[in-house]
Amino acid sequence: MRTTHESEFVSFVADASPRLLTTAWMLTGEPGSAEDLVQEALERVYVRWAKVRTGNPTAYARKILANLHTDRWRKHGREVLTDSVPEHARRASGDDHIDLVRALQSLPNRERECVVMRHYLDLSEQQTAETLGVSLGTVKSSTSRGLAGLRTLLLEEGTHV
Fold first, then answer.
1. Which pLDDT value is given to residue 148?
2. If phi over 0 gives left and psi between -120 and 50 gives alpha, with beta otherwise, what is residue 123?
């Protein structure tokens, strides 16, 4: 890679990393997994930097991130290893804190991806469909079901949406 391209890539990483990391964290719910996803996505962007630098490298990185997350989810399922079992399944009733990441984790993978991309990343339905490689109808229905699921979960916890 040329020196000018390397400096462009370094600037890109500095600008895009925080948003990519937050997106990955919302998708995975685990800080370590999110960091791994972002690192691997940036690694793949670096390899193709000469071609993607003139387009929209952030969108390209986001697409790689979503694809990596989907691949890992398919490979490992929804298994979450922990060293301790929680004492309570729900929070205390007086707690007004909404654990959005935990609520997102209760959604099926495709619904969670659509909700995060549409409402956190503020992508259009078309951009979300292109990023995930699915149809526009899939984005619409998955987003709708995901929001309904979040609404139900949050109402069960006594939080008004």
1. 94
2. beta
